[in-house]
Structure formats: structure tokens, C-alpha cells
Amino acid sequence: MSGATGSRRVAFETIRAVHESDAYANLLLPTAIRRAGLDTADAALATELTYGTLRRQGTYDAIISLASDRPVSDIEPAVLDAVRLGVHQLLSTRVASHAAVNESVELARRAGGRGAGGFANAVLRRVSRDTPGDWLSHVAETARSDDERIGLVTSHPVWIVRAFRRALAAEGRAGELEALLAADNASPRVTMAALPGLADIPARARRTPYSPIAFRLASGDPEQLVSGSAGRRRVQDEGSQLAALALSRVEPIRDGEKWLDLCAGPGGKTALLAAEARIGGARLEANEIVPARAGLVRQALRSVPGRVPVSELDGRTRAAESPDTYDRILVDAPCTGLGALRRRPEARWRKSPADVPALTQLQRELLTAAVGALRPGGIVAYVTCSPHLAETATVVADIHREWGDAIEELSARDAVTQVCDNDPGLLPQTDGSGRAQLWPHRHNTDAMSVSLLRRR
Ligand SMILES: C[S@@+](CC[C@H](N)C(=O)[O-])C[C@H]1O[C@@H](n2cnc3c(N)ncnc32)[C@H](O)[C@@H]1O
């Protein structure tokens, strides 16, 4: 199977797996594309259809509900996915309408029989009669509040709209909310890192504005570059690079320093810290609670000469076992991941506000355990791939309350800025903290938050 039909089938089956078995599109898609034997152009189409349909599902469901005159919860899930895929092609791609409709009708018919095909046909023909702009207006009219309108039009759950607005307001930029939400709906370019001291940025690559080790390929397959360099050139978001470098370069490394990466899986930042430690003469250790992910950390570390022990413990226990030991600790905490919605198309529909309290409790416990494992003078970087204030500013404020004068906050904004090739223009936080917040719409990175705390 190949061609546009093959692309649509791969997209449909991937979307089904995401909804049926909680699969991750970014993990499933490469295998599905390989199995279907898609060429580069068809693989790109399959990727766009899968990611676009999943990202914009909130908006499309509102449109389908209007066009079919029934709530989407009343539509058989496989048929609904076929219709969503059709709506995406009609409203957000240049795919010819007849192809979008006919192939989605066929997918719906195969999934649910002749009646389902007829239903999909009626809904998609109704959708094809209005422009994308008209549909956004129709959907906006159904909203009961301004936040709901923004959520429906930009395809974000309302709680995420609100969390983002608060995080932007914490630097006086609530007015950037719609730009941020729009950035979440665009496909990010693949960013790579050349591990310091082990690989150079390839001559044909384009530099990115901030990280001194980051680049993007104008053409070619990033995975080939990764395997061809034995992992010394790696795929890594520029924000993740800056978070790790902020810790490793916040001050000169003294020979023999002890470093710990407490929540290391799958090991992207561990590999970078290992390369930095190797240059500066520090000794890195890593820890990851999930054994399979600890395996990925070991794999990532193969690209860096030298031994980095990887333990598989709860980070709270791991840190508590080594009081007053480390000079630098990275706590890249488990979080909602709201800062990486561009790259994980289904993520916004998987998390809920109910997930936040348990995560923030764990984040506080990991961070306080890490502070306890620092030597006097040692520094912990508390990093989240989320701008949600409950996971960022509030966790750090709680740790300040707990540790009082025993810790001081360093300026993570200065530390990140110092590392950058160009000034990222990181904005001060209204809470007066030194926290650095990166943003997809401003920096073209994930929305990483970095705080640096020194133990006195
Ligand atoms: C945000 S990810 C870390 C990403 C990683 N630093 C990188 O750059 O590749 C957080 C990790 O923490 C792990 N984790 C969750 N709970 C943990 C705990 N209690 N102790 C240690 N690790 C934990 C998760 O399995 C996950 O791999």
C-alpha cells in the first residue's frame, strides 16, 4: 500500500490506536509508515494528517457536532475518527475535497458498515459547504464563556487555556495567549544537539538562535545523522539543551565535582550533562525510576565515553540515601508536559486538572530531597517541561518556605542567557523569582521552566 490512500490509512490506524489503546502517535507512526512502505512524501502526508487531526480534535469535534446535529459522544468511536480525519483534510489541508470525503467515507464504511459510510458522507458534505473561517465562527458562537471560545477555536481544553494565561500573566504577557495557543498547533521543526567535545555542528546545518550546540537540518533524515554519529549528534529540543546547559555552565566546573541527574529517563539531558561533565572533570550519576526508561538512559549514555552509573530508584529515596553529597543535581521532574504540546499531539486531551495535585506533591518531594543531597554550595536545577505555575513557581516557593535561609535562589534567567548565542529576552517574573521561562511562540522551544537553587 502506498500513495495518498496509504497515507490516510496509516493516519487513521494511528489515530485509532491513540484513542483505543492510549498509544503515543510519535512512537507508533514511524513503525506504521515503515510497514506501509510509504515514500518520503507520503510519510510526510501521513504525519501531517495524524498530528493535525489529533491536535485539532477539540475544534473538529465541535464542528462535527454542529454538522451532524448530535454530540460526538453519540458517534461510534472508529467512525468519529474517520470523520475527524476527513474534516482535517477539508478545513486544514490542500487535499482535494472529493478525495478527502470519499476516502474518509470508505474508512467509516469499513469501520461501521454502510450506514456509517452514509453518515460520514452527509457530515463531510455539510462541512465542505462552509469555509474554515465560517466554521470557526459557528463554533465560537456555541461557547458559553470567553475561555471556552478560545479553547474551541484553538483546540485546547479550557483548563489549559487558563493555566497558560496565568503563566503568561506572571511575566506581564497575558496578551500573548493566542499566539502561544497557535504555536502549539504548528508542527515544530526537528532540532538537534551536537554533544560538546564529541561532535561538531555539521557544515550544512542551520544554527538556531540560542543554544550554542543546536542546529537544524535543511534536508535529510535526522535519524541517519544520529546513527551515523553514534548518538553524538542527537534530536533534542533547544529548550531542553538550554535547561541542561544552565546547570552545567552556571559556574565553572571544579575538577572532581559530583553530579546527579535524578529523573533521567529517557536520557536526553543525561547525555548532554555527561558530555559537559567529561570536559570539566565532573563525575555524573543518573537515576530513573522506570526500568525501561533507565535502559534508554544507558543507551543514550553510550555516545559519551566514561562510566555513568544509572540507578533505578524512586528519586526521593535515591537522594535521601546520599545526604550532603552532590555539587550539582538536575531535577527534570515528571510533570503535565503542557510545554511540549506541539510535539505530543494527543497530550492535551490526556491530562486533566485532576493530575496536577499528585504531580506537584511529587515534584516538591523530589526537589526537597535533591536539596538535601546537595553539599553546602551545591546547586539544584529544577526543570519542568510545563509552564503551569502550580508545577513551577509554586513548587519553588514551597521549597523556599521549607528550607528558609538554608537555600538561595540564583538567577536562572542570567544562567540561561549566558549560555545563549543571542539574548533570548527572558522576562522577569512578577513573583520576583529568578525563574527562566521559555516559550514556543517566542523562542520556538518547548515551554521549559528552569529554577536554580543553591544550598548554603
Ligand atoms: C521529564 S522526564 C525526564 C526527561 C529527561 N531528563 C530527558 O531529558 O530525557 C521525568 C522522568 O522522571 C521519571 N520519574 C517519575 N517519577 C519519578 C520518581 N519518583 N523518581 C525518579 N524518577 C521519576 C519519569 O519516569 C520520567 O522518565
UniProtKB/TrEMBL annotation:
Binding residues for S-adenosyl-L-methionine: C263, A264, G265, P266, G267, G268, K269, E288, D314, D332
The keyword Transmembrane helix is assigned to this record: no
Boundaries of every SAM-dependent MTase RsmB/NOP-type domain copy: 153-456
Keyword list, A-Z: Methyltransferase, RNA-binding, S-adenosyl-L-methionine, Transferase
Active site: C385
InterPro entries for the chain: MeTrfase_RsmB-F_NOP2_cat, MeTrfase_RsmB-F_NOP2_dom, NusB-like_sf, NusB_RsmB_TIM44, RCMT, SAM-dependent_MTases_sf
Protein known as: Transcription antitermination factor NusB
SUPFAM superfamilies: NusB-like, S-adenosyl-L-methionine-dependent methyltransferases
Any single Pfam family the record assigns to this protein: Methyltr_RsmB-F
UniProt family annotation: Belongs to the class I-like SAM-binding methyltransferase superfamily. RsmB/NOP family.
PROSITE patterns documented for this protein: SAM_MT_RSMB_NOP
